[in-house]
């Protein structure tokens, strides 16, 4: 008995020494980084250097075409002798047919035209006098969409290189789901039975959705999707973006400002693709939430997602919801988008979530999101530009204090001419109550709440932890050498 005691005491002593010498070192380093971080908190250039070097995990809210700089689109148009309309600055690739005033870029290309194009398709030199920010932002897409798919591997490589340079190790980029040639003869009748007053009969809507689903499957949507997946995989291999430090995965999206059957067809395509291709890890719903059609059909879209979830329970989806601000729509229309995305559609993540405080049952909804771990993708630059919501008016801290998981993301980094580093600088300067350790936890969230499969997620988390260890050790070595 006595020997056992002695053995226990020795073991305890050994553990105590170990705890004192080994384990706290990393903790002490993190604490020292905390102190350093507070010293540079109000110094944006120092914060930029700090956050550029800091490992940032993933960017989970990232639109493919909005992440490629206008300069690249211009170069693609120039090299391929694409088209431009000098009056509207709309562009097209060489294969298309256009009449005057459209001209080939080789006939017109000049630096002033290029600058005008860059202003048209991004926030470059934007001045509020030229029109509302949201209209300008969403109009940029028409300016580059025809060129966006011309050379996808080049686009993927562009933002991969940029990601590596700022220590981002994962991107989950959103691309439009392809449309299929399948058209249904009963489409108009089915649309009628899902809209207007019929919407309130959820059982009947569900029944109609089942019919549309069966018809699309019968007409061969699965084959069309398989063909698309093979092409997408090939592009991914050609681009050669995945390596030991960087991983790229895709979400496929449907445009919510389209007719109900079109939205459904794209959503089904996206779900089917995500179920058969491991590179496609999720589904999304995009384009302005305050559009006439997207407002009208919002609840129907949420019901479509619930229905598709029953067919594809393993497919994950994030929904743009609550990308609205007071004054954009009538107040009663600000009260239900996030709650329906969570409660009806069952989204695993929410994009933006800016109008949460206007939700009818706001505090209960926050509790539910915290309990279900529904992460919110925070896009500070985007919300400032499109919604004019920033600083204390932004609900970031409201989510944070209610324990709703948050991830920091860019939305459309090239249109907004920003990067993930700048999003962290804004976070640190605008929300001084968030200490370095807490910001570090938000970075970790960007992998934890990604749609990566468990084994890859674990691998990415281990890499991230190691990268943080090295980042902090290097910073402290530098500080102590001074
Ligand atoms: Zn977005």
TrEMBL record:
Alphabetized UniProt keyword annotations: Hydrolase, Metal-binding, Zinc
Looking up InterPro entries in the UniProt record yields:
A_deaminase_dom, Ado/ade_deaminase, Metal_Hydrolase
Q: Which cofactor does it need?
A: Zn(2+)
Report whether Metal-binding shows up as a keyword of the record.
yes
User: GO CC terms on record?
Assistant: cytosol
The record's listing under SUPFAM superfamilies reads: Metallo-dependent hydrolases
EC numbers listed for it are 3.5.4.4
One GO biological process from the UniProt record?
A: hypoxanthine salvage
Could you tell me one molecular function GO term of this UniProt entry?
A: metal ion binding
Note one Pfam family from the annotation.
A_deaminase
Domain annotation Adenosine deaminase: ranges? 249-466
Name the family: Belongs to the metallo-dependent hydrolases superfamily. Adenosine and AMP deaminases family.
Query: What is the protein name for this chain?
Result: adenosine deaminase
């Amino acid at each position: 008995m006595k020997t056992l005691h002695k053995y226990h005491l020795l073991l305890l002593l050994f553990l105590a020494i170990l705890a004192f010498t080994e384990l706290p070192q990393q903790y002490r380093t993190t604490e020292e980084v905390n102190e350093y971080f507070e010293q540079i908190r109000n110094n944006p250039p120092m914060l930029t250097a700090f956050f550029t070097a800091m490992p940032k995990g993933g960017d989970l809210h990232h639109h493919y075409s909005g992440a490629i700089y206008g300069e690249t689109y211009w170069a693609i148009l120039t090299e391929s002798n694409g088209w431009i309309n000098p009056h509207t600055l709309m562009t097209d690739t060489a294969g298309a047919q256009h009449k005057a005033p459209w001209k080939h870029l080789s006939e017109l290309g000049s630096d002033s035209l290029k600058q005008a194009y860059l202003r048209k398709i991004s926030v470059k030199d934007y001045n509020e006098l030229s029109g509302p920010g949201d209209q300008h932002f969403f109009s940029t897409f028409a300016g580059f969409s025809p060129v966006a798919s011309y050379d996808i591997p080049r686009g993927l490589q562009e933002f991969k290189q940029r990601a590596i340079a700022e220590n981002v190790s994962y991107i989950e980029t959103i691309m439009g789901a392809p449309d299929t040639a399948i058209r249904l003869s009963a489409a108009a009748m089915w649309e009628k039975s899902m809209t207007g007053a019929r919407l309130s009969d959820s059982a009947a809507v569900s029944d109609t959705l089942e019919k549309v689903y069966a018809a699309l499957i019968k007409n061969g949507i699965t084959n069309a999707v398989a063909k698309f997946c093979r092409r997408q995989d090939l592009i991914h291999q050609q681009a050669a973006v995945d390596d030991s430090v960087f991983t790229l995965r895709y979400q496929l999206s449907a445009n919510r400002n389209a007719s109900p059957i079109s939205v459904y067809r794209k959503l089904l395509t996206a779900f089917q693709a995500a179920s058969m291709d491991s590179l496609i890890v999720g589904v999304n719903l995009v384009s302005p939430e305050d559009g006439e059609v997207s407002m009208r059909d919002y609840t129907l879209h949420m019901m479509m997602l619930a229905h598709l979830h029953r067919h594809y329970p393993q497919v994950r989806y994030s929904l743009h919801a609550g990308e609205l601000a007071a004054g954009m729509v009538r107040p009663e229309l600000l009260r239900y988008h996030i709650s329906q995305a969570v409660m009806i559609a069952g989204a695993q993540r929410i994009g933006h979530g800016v109008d949460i405080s206007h939700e009818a049952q706001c505090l209960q909804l926050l509790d539910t999101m915290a309990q279900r771990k529904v992460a919110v993708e925070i896009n500070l630059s985007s919300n400032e530009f499109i919604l004019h919501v920033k600083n204390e008016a932004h609900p970031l801290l409201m989510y944070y204090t209610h324990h709703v998981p948050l991830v920091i993301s860019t939305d459309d980094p090239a249109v907004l001419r920003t990067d993930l580093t700048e999003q962290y600088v804004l976070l640190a300067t605008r929300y001084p109550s968030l200490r370095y350790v807490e910001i570090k936890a938000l970075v970790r969230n960007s992998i934890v709440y990604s749609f990566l499969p468990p084994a890859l997620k674990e691998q990415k988390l281990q890499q991230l932890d190691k990268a943080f260890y090295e980042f902090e050790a290097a910073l402290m070595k530098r500080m102590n050498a001074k």
